[in-house]
Amino acid sequence: MAVTSASCHFLALPKPFIPSAAAASFDPRSTAADHGGPDKPSACLRPGSSSSLRHLGFSSAVILRFPPNFVRQLSAKARRNCSNIGVAQIVAASWSNNTNPVSPPSAAAAIDGPLAAVPLVADADSAAAAVVFDGIASPPQTADGPKAAASASAIFSSDGSLAIHAGERFGRGIVTDGITTPIVNTSAYWFKNSDQLLDFKEGRHTSYEYGRYGNPTTTVLEEKISALERAESTLFMASGMNAAVCLLSALVPAGGHIVTTTDFYRKTRKYMENELPQKGIRTIVIDPADVDSLKAALDKHNVSLFFTETPTNPFFRCVDIKLVSELCHSKGAVVCIDGTFASPINQKALMLGADLVLHSATKFIAGHNDVLGGCISGSEKLISKIRLYHNVVGGVLNPNAAYMIIRGMKTLHLRVQQHNSTALRMAQFLEEHPKIIRVYYPGLPSHPEHHIAKKQMTGFGGVVSFEVDGDFRTTMKFIDSLKIPYNAPSFGGCESIIDQPALMSYWYTPLNFVLNCN
User: Fold this and answer.
1) Residue 286 three-state SS
2) Which neighbouring-strand residues pair with 438?
3) What mean pLDDT is predicted for residues 254-260?
4) How far is Cα 162 from Cα 166, in angstroms, rounded to an integer?
5) Which of 312, 348, 311, 353 is nearest to 335 (CA)?
6) Residue 469, SS3 per DSSP
7) Distances (CA, A) of 483 to 216, 423, 486, 498
8) What is the pLDDT of residues 334-376, one digit of tens each?
């Protein structure tokens, strides 16, 4: 099966992907060409024209109601009306936070949501009194306000806003007036005197000590992921595989037992099967849907950890996170879900009952095929154990890489929405093609765990696996005939990628290992 299957990663980036486009209709700097050509003035700059705004979802109300002497009176009234434009831009940006994986809401539908909380014509007082975040009015924050105490998850109502603002908007450990988080390139940190060092050691002074133990830029990234995953703590590392190794090494004692699934990332399975036995650790492998085998393993052995992907690689099997967590917790086992193929936008493993969630941030989270990184999120108690081990063995995320992942996350929710939409259409197309034997995608009703995916995911991801009707060479020929996708490993970036796992991933792998995985 691995010989004739191909894994395809598709992403289309239409014009609405550009962040500024969400608010372009309300931007006073828009040119006439932006809204229909030189002979058609911009709809948003035509006072009194209700018909020109109906196609945007506005009925008879005109959002810009300028007084007759507006051109001559560049005073408080001018600023007042411009404040309406500012509010409109904020609301328009919030529309993009909707997480429908197939079709984004129309402008008219969005008007009934977030804009309903904002007066269409605001006076100077009302415009200054509140700022709208995703349809929720919040008091403006000032320098004297309780910024540090405000929880990002409580203030921002959507994953889109959290991916942009969490860890940055309401205080970070770097003193700067810049909107973007600076890169702190240092290997060590200094203390003013020995008393300050003593306070640091005893927890009375917050700082850093050595680059392997933490970095301010990386801390911002960790707080951003924690907000998205609703986690107490997050630890970032140099790669997803480094995160998996640290997790297994820190939480599973010598002589312990691990339960995992047949379909899983090959390198993680290879580490479990080749390295862990040297510590006396046994790995029990079950089918992702075989709940009875999980119960039997928990009853027979003192299982320390249940660790799997969902969706899995490369067949996108889905594990019922809530059910598995309940079973494992009844026997004292920790549950870790590798959510790389889902991303924090499509799936919240911790909220479903898992203790830990792991991501290869190289993929969807960073999203641009230009940086490596991995992270683990969960309770402070478990993350602290992993952090202590990581501080010893290293595998530290470079602060420059942390900055690039932070920047990539600004568009995470937009990219994942488009991934979801494009992949579903591609899966449906391939499933109907006469030269494709089978398609593996959790968004299809034909998928064996489609009912689980619908229950615990808001979107089904941007990767589609399928089997070509032919042999090894036929599949190679098919891949080589494609014009747009790159023949490359990895996924989750802006470029379309396709690969043949038998050649890309399993070429040097013994046949018995391939059969065990599949």
Assistant:
1) strand
2) 467
3) 96
4) 5
5) 353
6) coil
7) 43, 18, 8, 11
8) 999 999 999 999 999 999 999 999 999 999 999 999 999 999 9
Beta bridge partners of 359: 375
Q: What is the mean pLDDT of the chain?
A: 78
pLDDT given for residue 174 in this prediction: 79
Give every CB contact of residue 499 below 8 A, 6+ residues apart in sequence.
6, 7, 479, 487, 488, 489, 505
Q: Quick check: 487 and 479 in contact, CB under 8 A?
A: yes
Quick check: 11 and 419 in contact, CB under 8 A?
Answer: yes
Query: Residue 314: is the preceding peptide bond cis (ω within 30°)?
Result: yes
Residue that has been written with the tokens 């009875």 in this structure? 292
Quote the CA–CA distance of 302 and 252 in Å, as a whole number.
11
Q: Which residues pair with 233 in a beta bridge?
A: 378
Q: How far is CA 271 from the centre of its chain?
A: 26
Tell me if 358 sits within 8 A of 338, measured CB to CB.
yes
pLDDT value at position 118? 29
CB distance 363 to 461 below 8 Å: no
Residue 137: pLDDT band (50, 70, 90) is: very low
Q: In what order do the strands lie in the sheet with 257-261?
A: 233-237, 374-378, 356-360, 334-338, 303-309, 257-261, 282-286
3-state secondary structure of 276: helix
In the DSSP assignment, the letter for residue 397 is: P
Using DSSP's 3-state secondary structure scheme, residue 337 falls into strand
- Confidence category of residue 20, pLDDT binned at 50, 70, 90: very low
Task: Please answer whether residues 156 and 165 qualify as being in contact, where contact means their C-beta atoms are separated by less than 8 angstroms.
Answer: yes
Closest by CA to 340, choosing from 318, 368, 380, 312, is 312
Q: Tell me the C-alpha distance between 365 and 344, whole Å.
A: 8
What 8-state DSSP symbol labels residue 60? S
CB 309 within 8 A of CB 244: no
Question: In this structure, are residues 344 and 492 in contact, taking their beta carbons and an 8 Å threshold?
Answer: no
343 and 367 in contact (C-beta within 8 Å)? no
SS3 289: coil
Amino acid, single-letter form, for residue 175: V
Question: Minimal CA–CA distance to 319: which of 454, 449, 138?
Answer: 449
Q: Per the structure block, which two tokens stand in for 479? A: 């891949």
CB atoms within 10 A of CB 493: 22
Q: Is 6 helix (H, G, I), strand (E, B) or coil?
A: strand
Question: Hey, how many other C-beta atoms are within 10 angstroms of the C-beta on 371?
Answer: 20
pTM summary value: 0.74
What's 120-138 look like in SS3? CCCCHHHHHHCEEECCEEE
Rounded percentage of the chain residues whose pLDDT exceeds 90: 63
- Tell me the mean pLDDT in the region 188-206: 95
